[in-house]
Amino acid sequence: MKCPACHETMEEKAVGEDRINECPHCRGLWFDRGELEGVKDEVMPEISWLGIDEWKDRAEFKVNTDTLFCPRCHDVALTAVEDQSSMTKLSQCAQCKGVWLGTGQFLVLINALLEEANRKSVPEYAIIGLKQARDMLMNPDSIILEWQNFQTILRLLKHRIFIEHPKLRSIIAGLHKSLPV
C-alpha cells in the first residue's frame, strides 16, 4: 500500500489486535475501518468509553475534499475533517471508511479526546454511566470490558463532582474524621 501523502510504500504495524499501516518516510498512519477506535482503546484504555464519534459530535469541524486519495480505493479522494480548536485533522475515505492521520495527528487526536473527557460535567458523566450500565447488561459477551468502562466512568464522575463542588469534599472528609472506624 502506498502512502497517500508521499507515495512511499507503507509498513504494516501491529497495535494490539489491530494491524495499521505507517509510512516510514512521513510517519503518517492509515487505519482501515474500525481500526482507529481499536488502536485508541489499546493505547488509552482509560478513555475507551469515549468514542471518536462522540467527540466528533461535540466539536465544530471544517470539512473539505482533501488533495489526498485513498490508498485502498485509489481513485477516491479523501474527505478532510479539521477541528480548529484542537488542531486535529483526519481524512476519511467515503467508500471504505478508512482514516488517514498525518504525522503526529494520532497524538493530537488522543489529547483532544482527553480534553473532551475533562470538559464533561457531572450530569454528562451520570448519563454516560447509565449508558455504560445498560451496555453492560445488554451485551453479556463483552461484560468485562463494559464493567471496566463503567468503573472508569464512576471514578471520573466522583472526581468531577469534587471539582464542581469543592465544599462537598471537605464535608465528606469531616464526616470521615467524626465517625468511628
General description of the model:
It is a single chain. The protein is elongated and about 70 Å long. A 7-stranded antiparallel beta sheet has the order 1-2-3-7-6-5-4. Strand 5 (77-83) and strand 6 (88-92) form a beta hairpin. The protein is α+β, with helices and mostly antiparallel strands. The chain is built from 6 helices and 7 strands; from the N terminus they run E-E-E-H-H-E-E-E-E-H-H-H-H. The chain folds into 2 domains: 11-118, no CATH class; 122-178.
What fraction, in percent, of the residue positions are helical?
A: 40-55%
Counting DSSP H or I runs of 4 or more residues, the number of helices is: 6
Strand content: 15-25%
User: Strand order, biggest sheet?
Assistant: 1-2-3-7-6-5-4
Low-confidence stretches: none
Features:
single chain; alpha+beta; 2 domains; 6 helices; elongated
Quick recap of the structure?
This protein is α+β, with helices and mostly antiparallel strands.
Give me the secondary-structure topology.
Elements: E1 11-15, E2 18-22, E3 29-31, H1 35-43, H2 52-58, E4 61-69, E5 77-83, E6 88-92, E7 99-101, H3 105-119, H4 122-138, H5 143-164, H6 166-178
Antiparallel strand pairs: 1-2, 2-3, 3-7, 4-5, 5-6, 6-7
Helix pairs in contact: 4-5, 5-6
